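Reviewers asked in the last cycle whether our approach scales beyond single polypeptides. To address this, we selected a multi-component target totalling 408 residues and predicted its structure end to end. The input consisted of the following lines:
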Amino acid sequence: MNFSSKLIEEAVNAFASLPGIGRKSALRLVLHLMQQDQDFTETFTEALRNMRKHIKDCKVCHNLSDNEVCNICLDPRRDEKVICVVENIRDIMAIEDTGQYRGRYHVLGGVINPIEGIGPGDLHIDTLIRRVSQNDVKEIIMAISPTIEGDTTIFYLSKQLKETSAKISTIARGVSFGGELEYADELTLGRSIVARTPYRNASE
Amino acid sequence: MNFSSKLIEEAVNAFASLPGIGRKSALRLVLHLMQQDQDFTETFTEALRNMRKHIKDCKVCHNLSDNEVCNICLDPRRDEKVICVVENIRDIMAIEDTGQYRGRYHVLGGVINPIEGIGPGDLHIDTLIRRVSQNDVKEIIMAISPTIEGDTTIFYLSKQLKETSAKISTIARGVSFGGELEYADELTLGRSIVARTPYRNASE
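The resulting structure, written as structure tokens, was:
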């Protein structure tokens, strides 16, 4: 790409440094900014700078938060005796969107992955164990991806939490709702047979 | 999408206000910014603000430029007697990338489009006519999209430029190189037969 302007080139490079944005899309975005008022660019960049500068790590659950403690941890209607352990804040948003959960969260910040050099010390495990003991937590739900790394992490956490009185559960795994059996992968289908649940008629 | 943080929500809305970026992609970009140093966000936003604030409209050809007059207009090696008329600066970049053109440009800023309310007065036509008369331009190449609006614009410009001594040409239209005839659309194929060119052997 031939740029006659250094300023345009730098703006294109800035957009192209973000994941999933190539140089052609970046140029399209830059030209879009040029078509809008200067205020548009100011508002856009201010929102990002403001977010990056002022956002905090919730000191209870490590969710991203506007304050020292996040809204979910501050909400008195949410059960503090139940903690859902997730990898990152996107998982919190996905679970919140279901509207099915009224407990608290704990963000690990990843999963144990020796290949990428992520050990238990790199995750927020210490604070989880402290929370569980101090607040007399009754249940810990592991909402962690069903991968080898995820399962390793659940195994490690369950060992660490053995001393506490909390019950540990994992989110249900099996065939998706609305999915056709013939398209389910073998591992999922196999496990869903092994982990079958008693049938309960809705009218019972 | 449920956001526990107002700052995150505003940053996601900022990204999602750009064309072609949905809310899920916007969230991914915001979380990417969170994973990088604060400097990354500062550099990113600074490049955009700087570009939007300091970029100028080249007063000769209306290309986007770092200075009053753009690099192409300032380049003495480029033939100022040949002007290529384009719709926008993306077209300049596309033509520059071919490396086949050594004249100057003139950016119209669009094409005549009565449906969208764009008339000749909204385009940089006055400055084009002034340039052509003042600089004794020999040739004007219309590199404008072969659409009804584009053809209307070329027709209008040719009328306006009749008084000048400049020769007017349009970029060649026909089947694409490497394209198969059977897949060419009827209009293109039909016109490419009408506008056939004498065969010249490369060894002649």
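The longest strand of chain B covers residues 79-86. We regard this as preliminary and will revisit it once experimental data from Aim 1 are available.
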